[in-house]
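Late entry, manganese (II) ion complex.
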Amino acid sequence: MQATSTHLNSSIEKLWETRPFIISGPCSAETPEQILETAKLLASSGQVDLFRAGIWKPRTKPGMFEGIGSEALGWLLEAKKYTGLPVCVEVATAKHVEDALKFDTDLLWIGARTTVSPFSVQAVAEALKGVNVPVLIKNPVNPDIELWSGAIERLQQIGLSKIGMIHRGFSNYGDAVYRNTPMWHIPIEMKLRFPNMLMLCDPSHICGNRIMLKEIAQKSINLGFNGLMIESHINPDFAWSDAKQQITPTEVAQLITQLIWRSETSNEAEYLIALSKFRQQINQIDDELLSLLSQRMKIAEKIGEHKRSENIIILQANRWTEIAERVEKYGASLGLSAEFIARYLDALHLESINHQNKIMNGTKE
Ligand code: PEP
Ligand code: MN
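Prediction complete; structure with ligand written out below:
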């Protein structure tokens, strides 16, 4: 008997609208048995919409397992025929696109190491001209929002209608917590730039381990992401790539059911009234904050005038250290994160110096 997925949609059009949109499967296709077994378990769980497997693997160092290659496309097609679960693979070159499409791959994704290269993205885009296949674009490995936007624009330019994003975190130097730091403000900015575009989270590559998957997945849902891409393997400890972060198909299903899925909005009157009150309060506080900041800058300008009259330099390192220490302490006592205080102080200092500099140069209107 064939296993089926309750989430399953016959057409990709419908699948694209599925919320939450869940993609799962191994980091890499390894053997026909591993592919079929994983796909069967995921499909029968009824929690997964699309089966993924990497077949061309961009590895950091030579000598690591670099994927089975095109041969595995046949395994995926077999798994799709057996389970009914549509399939997706990562593509990085025009040849990958061509091969994947020959085997009826339902969706393609562009990996983080490819998004960094405009030449590669353009080559993939051109290979997709006239083909209506949905494409997901992972963020580039480095936190460059323009590069991510640019990759999307390249696909839009060739006329693709189904483009989505995958947030998989950003590579770092020495972050012991995450394999790839989430830097949530970047995908949030992308959601603002492309408000109607599908946005998925890939907690597997953010975490690099199994422990934090749920926490990261839940955070993305809380932020309004539309679904997840999670790596799964029938025998995670023995996976040929990314062993530490993969979980079994059963664990994927458990994870999905444990997550609290939230809707974008509600028409419930009580909820809307309370929300509107809170928003008014926020607007009021924002106005007050700006007005106070503007007063602060006016005082900084007076200090500028004062320093100018004595021919004193703007930057007084000791005074700034004193301010920073005071604000950091007070901010922490108010429950504000050290990271936020640091960013706030930087912005404040820069703006203050600019105001004083205009006074010094006599360029203030
Ligand atoms: C992957 O999905 O297996 C992969 C290689 O991901 P990324 O491009 O995010 O590193
Ligand atoms: Mn992987």
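The beta strands are 21-25, 50-52, 87-90, 107-110, 135-138, 163-167, 198-201, 227-231. Will revisit in the morning.
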